[in-house]
Amino acid sequence: MNRLNLELMELLGISMGLKDRTYFRRFFEDGNAIFRCNYYPPCKQPEKALGVGPHNDPTAITVLLQDDVVGLEVFASGKWQTVRPRPGALVVNVGDTFMALSNGNYKSCFHRAVVNMEKVRRSLVYFSCPREDKLIIPPPELVEGGETSRKYPDFTWHQLQRFTQSGYRVDNTTLEKFSSWIASDSSKN
């Protein structure tokens, strides 16, 4: 999975026309990862329960292998849309860390997991994280007018993790709220 992650990072660099196609990759060569197995039991009233509520992943990218039971939904075009499982296919979501690393050119995926009335749903999830002390800085060519056109402040994965794990409920505005928190935290120093 780590090799796949590094290849995806290089492809993302190519997709953005970076002079150094390995720019993003270098943030993850010695990074961390979280691997999780999800289990969602059937629920007789699925409209009254969520497997996981609406959120953006704070990590860089998420690679998901679903079983054959529908449950992943993304918010696109103003409504929740089902991501239908395909045998052997991987779903790749962009998270908040990569959104900041791309200076907002890639958007974090707002999604949720819903439960099924009759079937168990399982998935395997790989979350890509940079090394905790690595400073998240977009490549110079994605910052048009110098520092003034930066969308997000420099931060480390450790800072974002501390913010999201300290009682803050992750949602689709996490990166903006985190940026404000960083600004207020640095003004205290």
UniProtKB/TrEMBL annotation:
It comes from the Eukaryota. PROSITE patterns: FE2OG_OXY. This is Fe2OG dioxygenase domain-containing protein. Residues 30-130 form the Fe2OG dioxygenase domain. Signal peptide: none annotated.
